[in-house]
Amino acid sequence: MASPLPVLSASNLIKTYKLADGREVRAVDDVSLTVQAGDVLGLVGESGCGKSTLGRCLLKLMDVSSGQIVFEGRDITHMREATLRPLRQRMQMVFQDSYASLNPRRRVGALLAEPLKVHRQADGQRRSSIAITHRLEELMDLVALSRDALERYPHEFSGGQRQRINIARALALSPRLIVADEPVSALDVSVQAQIVNLFADLREQLGLTYLFIAHDLAVVRQISTRVAVMYLGGIVETGQTDVVLCQPAHPYTRALMQAVPRPIVGGAKPPSLKGDIPSPMKRQAGCRFHTRCPVAQPYCAANVPVLQRLDDGRDVACHFPVA
């Protein structure tokens, strides 16, 4: 029996920015990944590694320099906007800054109704008004906000409540895929847990698929079914969450896990990575991580590793993966 088509797949994606002086910065460097229906793929890595850029490229909010993006079996890489618009109902994004992504001059009800009107979810003036009002009330119930919130402005809410509003807007058109770009990083720890639990509940209730971008490994472990680790524009390790985070095979993944603070008084401090992240404007030969890798060999400086499948099912881009 053939396996079902993935909701989203990307092959050899490259996103390059050209600077004023003629130099180029490769923010996304030959990335390939797959998101199956019902998956929560956690995308993790240091700040500036290209996670957010990749998320925007996958939803065609940015054009890619090369590569291929397939959504629900259709190649959308170079699809015209008029053809792509109906598909946009099926893929939505939740942004990191809950305040900047909401128009402060419009009430919440107007903000949530806008996508319904743009995509013509109801016909006829009276039917449209009734249907939209009913849908807005449903959305408030889904994200656990009172219905009177529809008459208020974004500045009247806390950060966690505004993020719930952003989630409601992403849900308005009943999408299949949601890309969440660090949706809890600006929130208090207690509120983070509430929002992560909301994402998990919505996934079970609505059958959603997520690409969850984060740098907090505890959050990723809580919600993700699979993890992809990104470093300097490329994917260095991917696999089941428990396998990757409990027994990391790539030295960079292991360094990320060792950097997680642990409340152990008097315990041995794990070794930190040495050296700085190389400049993305100066592409180096060999493995992108070899200048900071504690197990690097001369072979690593001259040869680029590719993702290879290990016995436990994960993929690792390393010449000498940790056993």
Automatic annotation (TrEMBL):
GO molecular function, one term: ATP binding
Membrane topology: Peripheral membrane protein
One CC-aspect GO term: plasma membrane
Superkingdom of origin organism: Bacteria
Entry keyword annotation includes ATP-binding: yes
Keywords: ATP-binding, Nucleotide-binding, Transport
Predominant place of localization: membrane
Record-linked InterPro entries: AAA+_ATPase, ABC_transp_ATP-bind, ABC_transporter-like_ATP-bd, ABC_transporter-like_CS, Oligopep_ABC_C, P-loop_NTPase
PROSITE patterns in alphabetical order: ABC_TRANSPORTER_1, ABC_TRANSPORTER_2
Residue ranges occupied by any ABC transporter domain in the UniProt entry: 8-257
Coiled-coil stretches noted in the UniProt entry, renumbered to this chain: none
GO biological process, one term: peptide transport
Compartment list: Cell inner membrane
CDD domains given in the database record: ABC_NikE_OppD_transporters (cd03257)
UniProt record similarity statement: Belongs to the ABC transporter superfamily.
Protein known as: ABC transporter ATP-binding protein
UniProt source species: Acetobacter peroxydans
Organism classification: Bacteria, Pseudomonadati, Pseudomonadota, Alphaproteobacteria, Acetobacterales
